[in-house]
Design goal:
74 residues; mainly alpha; 3 helices
């Protein structure tokens, strides 16, 4: 797979990689891996949340506020 960057993106990537002592390709692969992991976790969390809603397991807005207040007082 090839990814085409704009000249501005390529310049920013090269500058950032250079400031970290890294090569631009390696940094791009690392950033892409981190992004993909984050997106997968987010999608999984949304699916778990939707399943909870389907089961009727959720808190009303007021209940969330009460829980937060209790946590802050602890």
């Amino acid at each position: 797979m090839k990814i085409h960057l704009t000249p501005e993106q390529e310049a920013r990537l090269s500058q950032l990689a250079g400031s970290k002592g890294r090569d631009p390709e390696g940094l791009a692969r690392e950033v892409l891996s981190l992004y993909l992991e984050h997106e997968c976790r987010f999608i999984d969390a949304v699916k778990r949340g939707m399943a909870s809603l389907d089961r009727g397991q959720y808190l009303e807005h007021e209940d969330v506020g009460t829980c937060i207040e209790r946590l802050l007082q602890s």
